[in-house]
Amino acid sequence: MLKRFSGLILYLLITVFVVTIYLDQPEILGRWEMAIYDQMFKLRGKQDITDDVQIVSIDDVSVAGQNKWPWNRDKVAELIDEISAQNPKVIYLGMYFGDDKTQDSEGYTSILAKALKDAGNVVLPYRHSAAYYTDSDFAFPDYVRRNGYTQFDDPSKFEDYPPLTANTIYPPSQPLAEAAMGLGFAGVDFDADRYIRADPLILGYTREYLPSVPFVVAQGYFSTKQSDISINIGESIVVGPREIPLDDRGRMRINYNGPERTFDFVSALDVLNGTVGKKEFSGKIVLISYTGPGTIDLYSTPVAQAMYGIEITANTVENIIHNNFLKSLGPAGSVNFLVILLIGAFSAVILPRISLMYRFVALGMSLFVIANLSFVLFTNYDIITQAFYPLIQIVFFIIVAPMMKLPHVSVNEEEEDDEIDYDALLAGTPIGGTRTQVVTPPSNAAPLDATVPQNLPGPGREEEASVATMQLGTDKNGLPVGSTNFGRYQVLEAIGQGAMGMVYKGLDPAIDRPVALKTIRLDNIVNSDEMHELKIRLDREAKAAGQLSHPNIVTIYDVGEEQSMQYIAMEFLDGQTLEELIESKQHWNYKTLCKLMIQICEALDFAHERGIVHRDIKPANIMMLDNDRVKVMDFGIARLAQSNMTQSGVALGTPNYISPEQLKGQGIDRRSDIFSLGVVFYELLTEQKPFKGDTISALIYSILHTSPPSPSEINLDVPRIFDKIVAKALAKDPDLRFQTSREMADILRKLI
Questions:
Q1: What dihedral do alpha carbons 167, 173, 176, 177 form, nearest 10°?
Q2: Weakest-pLDDT range from 120-124, 201-205, 264-268, 420-424
Q3: Tens digit of pLDDT for each residue in 80-119?
Q4: What average pLDDT does the chain have?
Q5: What does residue 152 show for φ and ψ, rounded to 5 degrees?
Q6: What is the pLDDT of residues 568-606, one digit of tens each?
Q7: Angle of CA points 33, 38, 40, to nearest 5°
Q8: For residues 582, 583, 589 and 593, what is the CA-based torsion angle, rounded to 10 degrees?
Q9: Beta carbons within 8 Å of 633's beta carbon, 6+ residues apart
């Protein structure tokens, strides 16, 4: 009887499990859900938007035209006057103007304050420092409080739905703040993966709410009075004719209209020179921001890896003024919960009664319909269905579908409970009239492990490792004394020396293939007690690296032993290392350089996805072949060298390419390789290393605590976009770097 309902029970248990993880929302699944959310933005593409939100960019040309940055405040005032003359609806001046005695004494602050007052519609930002709570007794200036909100529909909701909170704010200079139409806080709120998907519209401070810049801009656009604004914590904010949906942290999900540069950028220099049309800004919202050299106001979003902060603000403002919000299907979470239950009930009742083929058809169609319906609702109606968990539920059902047997149609219920004799089945005994044939291998068949090389080093095989004998020294030509073979490989000539031994050109006589033979002198690295363990580790590391079959990674063929000298046989390359090319003062075409870096990124990404971190990315480990092809070398060897070359007299070399977390002895992951790759990129662009020091200690201090000059400051021909790429790769905090080398490669592809 229990067996009759086994399918029903299994599907219901899976449904309960999915409901449980849906309510718990584990972080790893949350990241997958956000990845699907991001992909839908990319598939949707660029949206058609009106031009009533304009960005005035103080870009490279604007800075060069004025021959300085930062500008004095009178020059900013001139820009405000030019824009204000065209009667825009609201102007947002996206720069911070704190107290500055020099600007005050020269009269520049007064000039800017007059320009703001004459315009009458300028919004200024201010900074804040985040905290988990605020000091309720600390007062802040009235010229900031005039934009605050203290009247709530239910004050207890402040604690139930705590918004982004600050413990300190840094308002603009008082004359400027009082002359502005309004003040708003500027800042972003990262998701767990450092992406920006929502914009906080309110800031909790001293038990009051302060509005964000987009909030104040929208308030000015709709000419909404302070008293007409309604804040319903955890649900929405009403500004003029707009009810803005909020999450439980006071954030609005941003409905991105497209990738970077979706909004029109107007150069500030064109505005100052009067080359912009006389009615270009009439009745519009104008957002002013600095995007010139050295800006760090770049963030990862679902639609772009590096988007200016002012573009995020533009998307938020556009969403508000055009009622272009992302919406949920029904009350938050309830529809999704109901869908999970309906899928579970349908599957539990119907699927155990139909054949396996029809189960797969039904579940496959359900998967297809839900995925496509979610995409259609998102792209056409801006509705987020949160279909991730129902899709997981269906995937689980597909996995267990073959486990369910059709119920037997039988008069005698005891027949339904008869069990197959699996022991008899395995022994080959006929069951139920069906003969089971047991196949035995012929007597002359090869053993199952016949393909396993028998000459690999390991316990009990030291004497079989080679028939050749050799001394551990080398002759005047660099060849090993007393031997011309490493295992089956013939040693032809010495071609270099690494940190752990010599490198030879060799030949595999079995297939007449040239190979590179890298030797590792274990007796110089560890004592005899540790030798056996280190051999096993070397074998394991080499085998792991040998699994990396990629056009930009050197192929490892074999690993073996000659007395106390280990060797690795790998692909022989005819080319030059990047170290040699840098020393020869190679002049790079920047398109070629991008292609070179993309190949390295792809090699690293391939290895990283398989759990292998290189740990020693440097120019000497990157070979450039004909046709600008690149090969990354020494995967699997760097980890062994760094963890064991600790005895005195063994040179490790200078740590020019080592990441800060490696130097600190912290955990290492793929981002450590990205830092090292950033150093290599810097050196290719400038022919200089970014971190320097007269001693090892000074060099380590430089890596841990100093920021190098931008590549374009050293080489004026370097495009400034490379400065931003290098700066992100060399961030001291791994969370602020590119999180994968593929992200870096994608940006370089766009440049090409």
A1: 20
A2: 420-424
A3: 999 999 999 999 999 999 999 999 999 999 999 999 999 9
A4: 80
A5: -120, 155
A6: 888 898 888 999 999 988 888 888 899 999 999 999 999
A7: 100
A8: -10
A9: 554, 570, 573, 621, 622, 623
Statement to judge: residues 96 and 194 lie in one domain:
yes
Identify the residue whose tokens are 């593409």.
45
Query: Total structural domains in the chain?
Result: 4
Q: Looking at 53-57, 288-292, 588-592, which range is the least confident one?
A: 588-592
627 and 664 inside one domain: yes
Q: What is the pLDDT of residues 329-370, one digit of tens each?
A: 766 567 777 888 888 888 888 887 787 888 889 889 988 998
Three-state SS string across 100-150, please?
CHHHHHCCHHHHHHHHHHHHCCEEEEEEEEECCCCCCCCCCCHHHHCCCEC
Question: Does 237 lie in the same domain as 383?
Answer: no
Cross-strand pairs, 496: 503
Collapsing DSSP states into helix, strand and coil, what is residue 452? Answer: coil
What tens digit of pLDDT does each residue of 458-474 get? 333 333 333 333 334 55
560 touches 456 (CB < 8 A): yes
Distance CA 593, CA 724 (A): 16
3-class SS of residue 668: coil
Alpha carbon distance 288, 310 (integer Å):
8
Of 552, 571, 590, the residue at which a domain comes to its end is 571
Q: Whole-angstrom Cα distance, residue 301 to residue 308?
A: 10
Neighbours of 562 (CB within 10 A): 22
Residue 631 resides in a domain: yes
Please tell me whether residues 277 and 385 are part of one structural domain. no
**Encoding tokens for residue 49?**
């938007």
Comparing C-alpha atoms, which of 203, 187, 198 is closest to residue 148? 203
The model's pLDDT over 631-650, given as tens digits with 9 standing for 90+, comes to 998 876 645 444 444 333 33
Number of alpha helices (DSSP H) and beta strands (DSSP E) in the chain: 27, 27
* Measured torsion, CA atoms of residues 20, 23, 28, 31, in degrees rounded to the nearest 10: 140
DSSP 377-421: HHHHH-EE---HHHHHHHHHHHHHGGGPPPPP--SSHHHHT----
- Cβ neighbour number for residue 135 with a 10 Å cutoff: 12
Residue 683 to residue 437: CA distance in whole angstroms: 67
Residue 216 has pLDDT above 90, yes or no: yes
Same domain for 170 and 38:
no
Phi, psi of 43 (to 5 degrees): -70, -35
State which residues form the domain around 528. Answer: 462-571
Tell me the one-letter amino acid at 491.
V
Q: 649-673: per-residue pLDDT in tens?
A: 333 445 889 999 988 888 889 999 9
DSSP-based three-state secondary structure for 709: coil
